[in-house]
Write a structure and sequence with these properties.
Layout: H1 3-16, E1 25-27, E2 34-36, H2 38-49, E3 53-63, E4 66-76, E5 83-93, H3 107-115, H4 124-142, H5 174-185, H6 190-199, H7 206-219
Antiparallel strand pairs: 1-2, 3-4, 4-5
Helix pairs in contact: 5-7
Length: about 220
């Protein structure tokens, strides 16, 4: 792979693994964790992938009093143009009516109340389904990088360390050219100067060679 492309990929990965915006972080309803709200997830997807993202294969099923779902987040990589898929899964609780006071001190009875379909709130799924899809999308996006909230609630989080490429030298650096010029002007041994010029000949342009030769001749 071309080194310039690898550099571009690494810079993009650095962006993916930058910290999310503080404005998009909120506490979960129970106050025990932090989460990145869906609006910031979707907007960041728009920004990083230029709107080229979508969701596919949204599937769901009910387990007791919860609705569990999975979907695939599909993004088009802005550097390679490849389609990347990430699976996201989540579950939400089906809201039920308030437990009667007579059952509050009986854990088993409270659970039975929550599991009974007859106690479901009339609009419970109207609220639960959009939330389920949003949570699935958030879960899928997290696998793309820290900017989507991947490490918000992790005590031990790794840091992205890009592989540093050593670019092949294809031309003479200006700093080396300057040292040669200064060496000639300061009276450095001509043999050493000529030897250095011969070693660096493949990296020097005709203009640079001419300039150094003229400096040597003017010194003589």
């Amino acid at each position: 792979m071309d080194t310039n492309k690898i550099d571009a990929l690494q810079k993009f990965n650095q962006r993916l693994n930058s910290q999310p915006s503080d404005e998009g972080i909120e506490s979960t309803p129970d106050g025990k964790a932090r989460t990145l709200v869906i609006s910031h997830i979707e907007m960041t997807l728009d920004e990083l992938f230029f709107g080229q993202w979508s969701t596919e294969n949204f599937n769901w099923n009910t387990i007791a009093n919860e609705v569990q779902g999975c979907l695939e987040l599909v993004v088009v990589h802005p550097i390679t143009g490849e389609r990347i898929k990430r699976l996201g899964c989540a579950s939400v609780i089906i809201m039920v009516d308030r437990v009667p006071d007579s059952l509050k001190n009986d854990p088993q009875a409270r659970n039975q109340w929550a599991l009974s379909p007859s106690n479901k709130k009339p609009n419970a799924l109207d609220l639960a389904f959009p939330k389920l899809k949003a949570e699935c999308l958030k879960n899928a996006a997290q696998s793309l990088g820290k900017i989507f909230g991947r490490d918000l609630n992790r005590k031990n989080a790794d840091t992205y360390r890009p592989f540093k490429l050593q670019r092949p030298v294809t031309e003479l650096p200006e700093s080396t050219m300057l040292k040669l010029e200064q060496g000639i002007k300061s009276g450095a041994d001509e043999f050493e100067i000529r030897n250095a010029m011969e070693t660096l000949a493949d990296l020097m342009s005709d203009e640079q060679k001419t300039k150094l030769n003229q400096l040597i001749q003017s010194r003589q």
